[in-house]
Design brief:
9 helices, mainly alpha
């Protein structure tokens, strides 16, 4: 059972997968019994939030450093351009509700959204660390709730009722 806890924790730290992938794994019968809901969410949220300060303070610096390197420069420049473009678009669209937009961006589990991408965007926009971390954490909690409901089949049941 400890293997499953470790797997869920580590998967929740992986970019693009994050909590969105670790919650279904924790609720499944993969590697034993499902993890109880409250410990699962705590584990997934901690795992998903652990990289956030590192991303916020260092990711942009590493991308800028690597942007003129031979082998990685093209990819790093792509990441910088994507982050700046996405950040500016988010800022223009959200206006004064930027932190709420960040919360929704992280919280609605779509491909390419999540704590990693949201934190990187907050870093590119020079947003306040404390406020953006709270918005990202609230988004991670919302994503966890949505993924838990989806894993339990709630959305399928609702669809069956109304179709």
């Amino acid at each position: 059972m400890i293997k499953k806890y470790i797997l869920v924790f580590l998967v929740s730290m992986v970019p693009l997968i994050e909590l969105r992938g670790s919650v279904p794994i924790g609720l499944s019968s993969l590697l034993g019994d499902p993890i109880p809901l409250l410990p699962l969410y705590i584990l997934c949220i901690i795992g998903n939030m652990l990289p956030v300060p590192i991303i916020f303070f260092f990711a942009r610096k590493i991308l800028i450093w690597g942007s003129n390197k031979k082998w990685i420069g093209k990819f790093f420049r792509f990441c910088i351009e994507k982050g700046e473009k996405g950040g500016k678009k988010l800022q223009e669209t959200a206006g004064p509700g930027l932190y709420f937009a960040l919360f929704l961006f992280v919280g609605i589990p779509l491909p390419g959204t999540g704590a990693w991408t949201g934190t990187l965007a907050a870093s590119f926009l020079d947003m306040d660390f404390k406020k953006s971390t709270l918005a990202v954490m609230a988004g991670v909690v919302l994503a966890g709730i949505i993924m838990g409901l989806a894993s339990a089949g709630v959305f399928g049941a609702i669809g069956a009722i109304f179709s």
